[in-house]
Amino acid sequence: MTSPPGSDGDRGSDAVPRPVVCARCGARSEEPRPTWTCSVENGVRVHFCDTCSRENLRAIESRLDSAWW
To answer: Which of 1, 17, 50, 64 is the most exposed place for a label (fewest CB within 10 A)?
Structure first.
């Protein structure tokens, strides 16, 4: 079955969960954590662990791309 035009093909609970990796330090988590930060940069969803999120809180709140941190 094909996905309707404009959808990302999300199959909900049928999808196999993938580990979440911090885009800054490479820390891994088997599932998304509430203390991690999710950002969309250049159309790509990226995650940052709680440590990297805390260390760069001002830059995140200023909406700077992670390349500027």
So the answer is: 1
